[in-house]
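From the thread on structure requests for the teaching lab: each student submitted one protein with a one-line request. Submission from student K.M.:

"Model ATP-dependent protease ATPase subunit HslU from Acetobacterium fimetarium, tokens only."
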Amino acid sequence: MKELTPKKIVAELNRYIIGQGAAKKAVAVALRNRYRRTLLPPELIDEFTPKNIILVGPTGVGKTEIARRMAKLIKAPFIKVEATKFTEVGYVGRDVESMIRDLVSTSIRNVQQEKMKEVYSEAEQNVNKIILDILVPSKKIKETLKTPFDLFMKPSQPAAPVQAELAGDAEKEQTRKEKRESLAKELAEGRLEDQIIEIEVDDDGSKTIGIMQGMNNDSMSFNMGDIFGDMLPQKKKKKTVPIKEARKILINQEAQKLIDMDQVQEIGVKEAEQNGIIFIDEIDKIIGNGSNHGPDVSREGVQRDILPIVEGSTVNTKYGPVKTDYMLFIGAGAFHVSKISDMIPELQGRFPINVSLDSLTEEDFIEILMNTENSAIKQYQELIRTEDVNLIIEEDAIRHIAKIAFLQNEEEENIGARRLHTVMEKLLEEISFYASDYEQEDFVINKDYVERIFNIAEKRENYQKYLL
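Reply posted by the TA:
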């Protein structure tokens, strides 16, 4: 974070998101303030809390993508929740505290993956030994046959057969050792990756027992392993897979054995408390129109339930109590019907930063297709390349695609940048279907091809018939 100044954060976001400069600046400052907080004197750290943000704008303009990329940039625990999934306490549905439990679980899983990467090489070495033991089971010479006591207990057996047996065992062990060395070399060179072997894997099964599941309450389920711990032995099941698949499964199991899960959980909870980001989408859908009856009552109830979470409280989880005081909450919504001022005043005060995002223009669509690292053009080119076809889309075709997407948003429902995928799917439908049959390596899409697929001119002529 020391190197991630607000300018650099915005520059990173610009690689994936076009426009929306005000929103990018707001989240960049929020991230930087988190780093600044860690540099404060100890007596001031607890006094500084994040300034939560509400992003206002139509669907598909980048609200979720900004929050997701921001969290990925700093490797912070991040979850996205839909405000409409929550209900007031006492009603059927998810309670608002479940978002904190989900965040903590995500944070612990992230820490666990990082710790497993640290022990990957050790786990890989252990797995290579396990695979070798499966291919050539290790069997040591029975040393007890060499002892005088063994000979004394078997006086009827002459010494010569005993020596012969020992010599035979030694020869077998030498042969086995040579075979293991040979196979170990082949494994290291990757020549046995497709060989089928049988391995034992952990059988997770269905350990969770739910009570009153119809109420859909997260707190009403528990894990038998959490209650009985090591009293219940880990069940195993056999699985027949190629060595390359077996290695992935076994490395994962071995890495989990090598890490300290108590430490992982402790770090995970701390990361969630200090750096967690919760993105609450469709927050405008829990705002009523001011009436005191019907669904508006329940919506206001959800707001009042969310309030203590955003304000700062302690939520009980299976990993212990978790404080929400220093988590960053980002709300988002179109706010077509309602306004931020329609929220209950207490909740408004907990989202002091409000940023409006602009609807996407035709030029924005061109920029999204041509200048973002995750553009739809690049994604579809890579997909078609798996069929050994090089998809080439000329610049004038890309501009025409952007124009079609913009016009469709104007004429139909405005779904923002998601419209580009709708247009691209239609454009490439025939190509995707026949890609495996193409003999030529290159397939070029120009403006005429785009025009022919969408028949824009013909459609406009038909529209003219109905214009007064």
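TA comment: The first helix runs from residue 6 to 14. The chain has 20 helices and 13 strands.
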